[in-house]
Write a structure and sequence with these properties.
heterodimer, A: mainly alpha, Ferritin, 0% strand, B: alpha/beta
Chain lengths: 253, 167
Amino acid sequence: MAPRDRALLELALRLGDDALILGQRLGEWCGHAPTLEVDLSLTNIALDLIGQAHHFLAYAGELEGEGRDADKLAFRRDVLEFRNCLLVEQPNGDFARTMTRQFLFSTWQHLLMEQLAQSRDPRLAGVGAKAVKEVTYHARLASDWVVRLGDGTEESRRRMTEGLDWTWRFVDELFEVDASEAELVAVGVAVDRPALRPAWDARVGDVLGRAGLSAPIVKRGVSGGRTGRHSEHLGHMLGEMQFLSRAYPDAVW
Amino acid sequence: MTVCQTLTVPDAALEAVLAGVPDPEIPVVTVVDLGILRGVRVRPDGGREVVLTPTYTGCPATLAIEASVRSGLDAAGFRDVTVVTELSPPWSTDWITDAGREKLRAYGIAPPEKDAARNSLKPEAPAQCPQCGSCRTHEVSRFGSTPCKALWRCEACAEPFDRFKCL
């Protein structure tokens, strides 16, 4: 495989795995959310993300050319082969932490998909243009909850602050780019992730300001997800997510 | 029939079949009403291809819609007509026809406002209650019974209702 094809495959996996892993995490709320409306919201967002993951991973499977479809990539890879960022694999924690994670991610994903819609790769551009519409709703919902909880009771504010403290260390990774992806940026295929940071800072800062919250100071961010170095949480999550497919390979109903 | 792209191959019998395929979640509207039928085009081998588009990337109805179109075509003898789903350009609620909007309203679902481009990070204007017509309504939940709908309530007649989200 030529280096640029390899880079494109990696990019499709990164985009697909971000959506897949966060979709699975949000699905864990099904039946457990504070209200029925919130339950519906979180699972609907999960459904959108899994739909996006399906399109990105199907493309990755075609690029790889080894006969793996989206399902095989989702359910038959082991933890070291996943390319998602660390933020999306973090445990849900309480509702405030889940909403903090969603707010940081959706604000970033919205900017990313807006740009991806302009990609010179028509497949990536097609999914990006589709996804940006869906993510607009995710970002709005998450922003509203950040303001409501941050500007709410003493307890909701404390929980939001703890949520920000937990998730903020994973922010820098969202804006990282490696050498192979930089080559795709240069030819107009991949999004220039570092260039998204100022707009992200502005949007996040605006919402945090309305919520009466402030961004924590993080001495050192953590990263590694894009090269398969994950936190211990991902393996446990995959154990549950992939159990059926591994125990009963190729089962149908 | 042509809803959103210049893909039409005139064939009244084929159009009649496609115009009769209902949406699996909202059976009062058809795939043509919803604008999820992009059209029909000629394949390189000379055969014909029906092109569909999903409303949302994760919409579970997408496969069911493909299957209904397939079985509708088969039943009418169009066995050589293939069916494909394409994402691009992305579906918009602006593609829902006027007839489709009226059917949604009569069914109790507030249709989406036109000009979905106004859909932004800002809140939407109040929906008109499909039961009593009042605009004194409020959003109960931004996400509803399916990916394409939000849950609203009317303050005038107190009825809850689904609202098709602008996309």
